[in-house]
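Subject: Protein record for review, amino acid sequence with backbone structure tokens
Why sent: The fold of this protein is of interest and is recorded here as tokens.
Enclosed: The protein record, placed directly beneath this head.
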Amino acid sequence: MTSALPSSIPDSQLGLSHSEIQILRQHQQIALQNHAYAQSTSTRGRGHARTSASTSRAASAASTGNGRLVLDPASLAVLGQHFERLMAAIQNRVEQLTVQTQTCTINQSSRAGAAMAAADAEIARFRDIIRQIDELETEFDKVRHIRDIVKGFRARVEGLERKMDARSRR
């Protein structure tokens, strides 16, 4: 007793989530319609109607939205090729985004490095200014001390001059 394989199965029996079933239905329809279109444009006038008939029927069945996965080998091959192209496109986009992310990271790192170098230079400049201020304060203290000494001598000299003037007046 041989059992005939079903021509399709309900996509709800594939163990997919609701969103995965929606994706499968959408891409099954796209893949089969694209394949049917490609077949119709490449075989015009060549008499190959038999080779595209099963795929056209599969595309028609897929487009009815009956929620079944068509199991004929040609339809599954078309769907498999579609998903391979889709996955390759997604992988290509991921690689592009990875390169863009790396470029952004490198650029940001360079800018951060430049900002850190500029900050280091400003810190060094600030430290030099503080050193110069400290030196000037030290010089200021020395000059103030000398000024105080000079004031002291001047006061003494003026005092001595007053004493001498007072003695000479007597």
In short: The beta strands are 8-10, 68-70. The chain has a mean pLDDT of 84.
